[in-house]
Sequence to fold (264 residues):
Amino acid sequence: MKIATWNINSVRHRINLVTRFLREHQPDVLCLQETKVINELFPKLPLAKLGYEHQAIHGQKAYHGVAVISRLPFAKTGVQDFCREGHARHMGVSFENGLELHNFYVPAGGDIPDPEKNDKFAHKLHFLGAMENFFGKRKTQRKNPVVLVGDLNVAPLENDVWSHKQLLDVVSHTPVEMRLLGEAQAAFDWTDATRAFIPPDQKIYSWWSYRAADWEASDRGRRLDHVWLSPGLKGALKSQTILKKMRGWQKASDHVPVIVEIDV
Fold:
């Protein structure tokens, strides 16, 4: 089973990139974040024409939004309320083969890494804590086949950013965010699929800012997009890919897809 996750930064604006990606890489499932569209206006038809007829959408006008599109039918879909602000930031689905999948869009957190001065940052920390609490309560189900994907908006390791030292006081790589994401990961004993293949001493990114004059030359990236696997999928992970070249596509998102292949 081939699963991809991608912060698309407006699915209607970049629907041609989505369809190109689907044609070229043929995932079984694509999880999108930051779709920025209400459910009724989600571009379902071009995706269905490519065989992705099964679509679980949790949208919001102009902001946020997540969707799971699939060639495989869903056995169940549902949304959990991790977000104190009521944003569309989670979609969960189960497949007929028994796999459970959670698609997340964690709040970015604004620019000031102080919850007392920045409510957006406080919101992010609350959301990460809610993730830990939700999966911690389900720890007896860790042997089930469960996948968590999404733009988690945290680069948790030193080599998940271009400069650990310079970014320690920058939102997405602050010690409190790294700690809370680590606690959420430990709560369900998740395996980080990317770091299962790429050692922690090697740099790897999935996001490059629009602010860079030449993103490729400067290569000042961060790894904000993640795929986690439950202990029930131990030994099932076959490959992982971060499609850096897609950051160079015309009108690209600032994020690129992450793809994993697992045996289910």
About this structure: The chain is about 25% helix and 25% strand. The longest helix spans residues 119-136. The chain has a mean pLDDT of 97. The two ends are 7 Å apart (CA to CA).
